[in-house]
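sanity check both lines:
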Amino acid sequence: MKLEKYSMGIGDRFCHQGKAQLAAFVEAAKRGIHVTPVWNKSNREHLIVHSEPASTRAEADDAVKSLGWKGAFRVDADHIGIKTVDRFLPVSDFFTIDVADFIGKPATEYGLDDLVKLVAGIGSKPAIEEISRPIELSPEKIVAVAGKYLAAVKEAGRVYKHIEASKGRNNFITEVSMDETDQPQTPEELLIILAAIACEGIPVQTIAPKFTGRFNKGVDYQGNLAKFETEFNDDLAVVAFAIRNFGLPDDLKLSVHSGSDKFSIYAPIHNAVRRRHAGLHLKTAGTTWLEEIAALAAVGPDGLQFAREIYAGAVEHFDELCAPYSSVIDIQRSKLPSPGEVNIWSGDELAAAIRHDSQNAAYNPAVRQLLHVGYKLAAQAGRRYTDLLEKHAEYIGKCVTTNILDRHLLKIFG
């Protein structure tokens, strides 16, 4: 199974916006921008919302049928491991194997000799085109990097083989994710990681490294833009070199996780992939839920009341909601208005605080991030929430489509 050159993950917490999400891809295709939609939802999200992976498959299939989509589409078992993958096997055809927890753990010596031999075969100073600085790979360097990442690659291999035993070879897309860790990988480390993946026999099609800077949920990138641009370009160069030299699939590409709303890096990413004729997978999640709650705030009294209650509950349960996302949010509590203050705002004022528009003085990144992790409260509301989604489906759907099309697809792939 080949993964198309450009693809984008579209998370949908409550499985009500599939058609609205796909409508953005339909419109982009009309403009000559062809991107494969990938519906992604993690095991953690399913547990919080009390849903099953089959619901994501049903949502995707229904959207594709309803809109007459003729292009490819995928359903991603997002951030799975050996303990969580089984429930996704019948319905997913894209598997994001998350092995960040295994980085730095000791690995057995098994496979190290093969890795050293493969990397040594490209020379101590490999000629990588368009890289910002020369890479030097001594045997000591290879062994040191292997000591940090080999256990993670071995675990990825274990999970991959488990999926392959169920799905069959070449019947699914394989992504290896190492982004949820403290330090970004250097070009040398990424090259050795890809060599280890090749030695392990994983036909990886997207690799999600940790990039420099902060990729906080739902808000713009925070970090040194010039450093990110150099790092991203170097990673593209390493991926292209690894495809040619390690026998990895020719559709292997970089995957940018927590990619929604990272507007300041979209132009550098766009320029880099176009210049190198490279592919890209951008993974978004949570941005559709935020459009739902912002739209409900603006659509009428019932939606506004619900949005106010969700905000008040999120403030009350701040620590509980934020703890699982501590590495990918950065909320200044002093910037959060009190629930009492929010209760006197109009619907448009609350929507403006939530919606990601840095040109609007009312936009509040602290409010947006808190509500991003506050979807658990909407899940607890059950039918009350989903009834509101259905009642106001037309307006909410337009907001969702506009967000994905104008703020994401056109900016990064256009």
The mean pLDDT is 96. The chain has 17 helices and eight strands. Residues 177 and 208 are 5 Å apart (CA to CA).
